[in-house]
Amino acid sequence: MTESTRPESGSRVLVTGVAGMLGSHVAEVLLARGDRVVGLDNFLTGRRATIDRLRLDARFEFVEADAADGSTVSGDLDGVLHLASPASPLHFRTMPLEILRVGQRRHVGHAGARRTA
Ligand SMILES: NC(=O)c1ccc[n+]([C@@H]2O[C@H](COP(=O)([O-])OP(=O)(O)OC[C@H]3O[C@@H](n4cnc5c(N)ncnc54)[C@H](O)[C@@H]3O)[C@@H](O)[C@H]2O)c1
């Protein structure tokens, strides 16, 4: 995301893959700077315990869904950070179709987004 496309603090941002390594940390940073975060994950490789600390923040909403299924998160969004994907070299061998699918499909949130990044 470049400076010009980065949502301002106080934005409502969708983070897919929020139970994963990058997604959970990105969500934490966004909440710390005052954003509202809609986290989405289907726990394909992520763990439920990873989002426990995020759930303590009232500005965090969680949606359990497949990011590749084309559904839409309700409400306006200022940005989408699409980090949902199996990511380890092991997954490249065991989940190649899941990786292609979530990487290719127009992912959740776009239909309701005011601006995407
Ligand atoms: N970790 C790194 O160092 C690194 C570096 C560069 C790029 N990336 C990329 O960033 C992305 C995230 O990497 P990561 O290390 O956080 O991976 P991760 O496996 O820790 O997290 C991925 C998360 O996405 C979720 N997920 C997978 N498919 C999904 C789907 N269809 N719908 C909803 N949720 C789904 C998983 O359950 C998991 O919580 C990947 O695309 C990866 O290639 C990672």
List the helices and strands and how they pair.
Elements: E1 12-16, H1 21-32, E2 36-41, H2 52-55, E3 60-64, E4 79-82, H3 89-94, H4 96-104
Parallel strand pairs: 1-2, 1-4, 2-3
The structure holds nicotinamide-adenine-dinucleotide.
Number of helices: 4
Using the CA coordinates, give the radius of gyration.
Answer: 14 Å
Q: What do the pLDDT scores average to?
A: 86
Low-confidence stretches: none
Order of helices and strands: EHEHEEHH
Strand content: 15-25%
CATH topology-level fold name:
Rossmann fold
Bound molecules: nicotinamide-adenine-dinucleotide
Q: How many strands appear in the DSSP assignment?
A: 4
Question: Would you kindly provide a written description of the structure presented here, covering whatever features stand out?
Answer:
This protein is of the alpha/beta class and 117 residues long. The protein has helices at 21-32, 52-55, 89-94, 96-104, and strands at residues 12-16, 36-41, 60-64, 79-82. Strands 3-2-1-4 form a four-stranded parallel beta sheet, covered by helices on one side. The protein binds nicotinamide-adenine-dinucleotide. Nicotinamide-adenine-dinucleotide is lined by residues 16-17, 19-23, 41-46, 66-68, 83-87, 102.
